[in-house]
Specification:
This protein starts with 9 loop residues before the first strand and ends with a helix. By secondary structure, the protein is α/β, with parallel strands linked by helices. The longest helix is centred in the C-terminal third of the chain and has 31 residues, at about 170-200. The chain has a single domain (about 10-200), classed as SGNH hydrolase (Rossmann fold), CATH 3.40.50.1110. The protein has helices spanning about 15-20, 50, 55-65, 75-80, 85-100, 120-135, 170-200; strands at about 10-15, 40, 65-70, 105-110, 140-145, 150, 155. It comes from Phycisphaera mikurensis (strain NBRC 102666 / KCTC 22515 / FYK2301M01). Pfam families: Lipase_GDSL_2.
């Protein structure tokens, strides 16, 4: 009897919020996001959207993930990129990723409102709101608002951040894990059903 097929992996890409998730406390690491699938964390600290424009599509095409989780944009804002340019770059990234593998589902994690970004909260919110409108389940996309995880009583919970006010502590990653696990499981099952349906037709 042939061995059952290996489930397609979950791919993480983007900047340090995801990159450092691979090395945080083992109980909250990104490799625990999907127990029945390999998690391939390819995020790179310090990257901005232009860094991913030539590489995200080929990476998705090579890995062919069930789910792509993307966190990128915070460094763009911190380095002065305009909302319009950032949104244009994100649109290209979304299109390239989805075109690279027809069964990949995309989840975009919202740009996090950290103390470091306080001068651009208005722009940050505008980016998140525009992306939330842009990404629709019917287009194999989803928007995950991470900001409620980092706020208590409407105020930023600084105890979840490292001393630099940007990067996350293990307990913050534990919250992200609990938030994203069910979203990934749900969209991965939709992908599997779509492939199964195509094969049975």
């Amino acid at each position: 009897m042939p061995a059952p097929p290996v489930p397609a992996p979950v791919l993480l890409a983007g900047s340090s919020i995801f990159a450092e998730w691979a090395t945080t406390d083992p109980a909250a690491r990104s490799d625990r996001l999907c127990p029945d699938r390999r998690v391939d964390n390819q995020a790179v600290c310090g990257t901005q959207t232009p860094d991913w424009l030539p590489t995200l599509g080929p990476l998705v095409g090579a890995v062919r993930p069930a789910v792509l989780c993307l966190y990128v944009g915070s460094n763009d804002l911190a380095n002065g990129r305009s909302v319009g340019r950032l949104l244009s770059n994100l649109d290209r990234l979304f299109d390239d990723a989805l075109a690279a593998c027809p069964h990949t589902r995309l989840l975009y994690g919202s740009v996090i409102r950290s103390a470091h970004q306080s001068a651009r909260f208005g722009d940050l919110d505008a980016v998140n709101e525009a992306v939330a409108r842009r990404l629709r389940p019917a287009d194999r996309c989803g928007f995950v608002d991470l900001n409620p995880l980092f706020h208590a009583g409407g105020r930023l919970d600084g105890s979840l951040f490292q001393d630099d006010g940007v990067h996350l502590l293990p307990r913050a990653y534990a919250r992200m894990l609990a938030c994203l696990q069910p979203r990934i499981a749900a969209v991965a099952s939709v992908r599997s059903a779509a492939i199964g349906g195509r094969g049975s037709g």
